[in-house]
Task: structure prediction
Amino acid sequence: MSRRVVIIVIVLAALTSFSNVRAANAINIRVDSQAVVVSELTPGGSAVIFGVTFESGDAVPTRLRTATIVRDDDRDGVVRYQPQAGIAHIGIWGAVDFTTGATQLGSQRGYRVTPFAEPIETSLQPETGSTNFVRFERSIVSAEILVVRPGEQAWTITATEGGDNDSDNSTNGNLAVSFDRMTPLTSDGKSPAHLQPGDVVVVIDPDDMRVAVTKLSARN
Result:
């Protein structure tokens, strides 16, 4: 066997190994008019399901934020969130494997998930003299934010420019959200002082219906 053939075999083996690792860490999300279904979860684990939808009303559509933890009780790696009223067509959904932090975004067929124009990392701000991210800042009117610390806790917050959760306490075209104001999804938790490596952050802009997601590494 020539040296060139050996190199090709080694490269193909490495790519196959990398592909398998990615598949093992992936989750799937399917959204239809009845339910949000998350699969390929850690068996026996939980999914944090997060979404913003607009429900049809008599005059003005009603915005609804959903944040819930659904456990895989039968250990088949699949969970289902199925509200009695069904799932509105206009909506963005995200799911996070509470064990691994693997994340997936989705929407109903015919409604496209639109990302932020800039990476979410550009909006994470550290406290003075530290590298710890303590707030989210961006020139938007409002935001729905989810933070998941795999294996520990998940938190959410709704913030509007100039509102109670706008940390700069002013209407200046810049929304600032401190993570220590977030609310835990379970009753036995407290707000995070700052983000940590491994945290998953999902931000939905409900006015433009754009979304961004990231998982923090040590380099963030």
Notes: The chain has two domains: 26-112, 113-220. Confidence is low (pLDDT under 50) at residues 3-24. The first helix runs from residue 3 to 24. The domain at 26-112 is CATH 2.60.40 (Immunoglobulin-like).
